[in-house]
Amino acid sequence: MKMCRERPGGSPAVNETNGHFMKIGIFSDVHADLDSLNRALKLMENKGADRLLCAGDLVDGDTEGDAAAQRVKNLNIPVVMGNHDLAFSQPRGVRWMQDIAPLLYKKNPDDRVSIDTANYLASLPHPLEIQLDEKWFLLAHGSPWDLASYVFPTAGSHHKLRRIAHDYPDVDVVILGHTHVPMAAQVGSLWIFNPGSVERNRYSFDRTCAMLDTSNMDYRVYDIDTGSETTLERVTLTLDSDS
Exposed, middle or buried, 46 (CB in 10 Å: 0-12/13-18/19+)? Predict the structure, then answer.
């Protein structure tokens, strides 16, 4: 069954429920790394993923941005817009990203994405709600209110984790990306997950994706090079900021 609902914030929502528990493959921050994307997709397939979700940043200043975006599009994977997707979907954004991070972007115009890819990136929602196995998921890149905001599993981000829980009381699971840091946080009854980065991780040099079993909310992050489970930061908070 598939249906849409409206939220006060105006974020699009899709209902896809089939009445049984699911294994959900979760990934983010592809950054035009097609080889790593294909490795992650294969790993999640081997782990028995029934559904895939992506938290954004499909492209980067590299030649495989078109192919990476097309791969996700062809597989009909729900994905939200990341800050790099936003930049490459509009000329002004491309120039801004190149000015602040020149080492990330090649000077050859051929390395930029095609018009078709730019249009696809521009069409991506942020945030997005989707119902799977009778649970509501919220996908966002940085945070639900700002795709470029960083939400880490550290004490400095605890107020952001609590804000998400307060702002989305009817959501069961929030999926974030952007930081490249795997995370599993529980704030009250809300789960907030980050699968890390499909591209080489800027902090630990791991390339990771994750699996979530909705039957018991078991969440695990895997190294896509070795297929082995890797460590992640786990946080448990109450809704009350003084505890």
Answer: exposed
Q: Which residue has the tokens 């929602």?
A: 125
**CATH code assigned at 105:** 3.60.21.10
Q: Is residue 101 part of a domain?
A: yes
If DSSP states are collapsed to H, E and C, what string results for 126-154? CCEEEEECCEEEEECCCECCECCCCCCCC
Q: Which range marks the domain in which residue 38 is found?
A: 2-237
pLDDT, one tens digit for every residue, the chain (243 residues): 333 344 444 566 655 555 578 999 999 999 999 999 999 999 999 999 999 999 999 998 667 899 999 999 999 999 999 999 998 887 655 554 555 444 344 444 445 678 888 889 999 999 999 999 889 999 999 999 999 999 999 999 999 999 999 999 999 999 999 999 999 999 999 999 999 999 975 566 689 999 999 999 999 999 999 999 998 989 999 998 754
Is position 242 within any domain?
no
Q: For residue 17, is it within any domain?
A: yes
Q: How many structural domains does the chain have? A: 1
Residue 243 maps to a domain: no
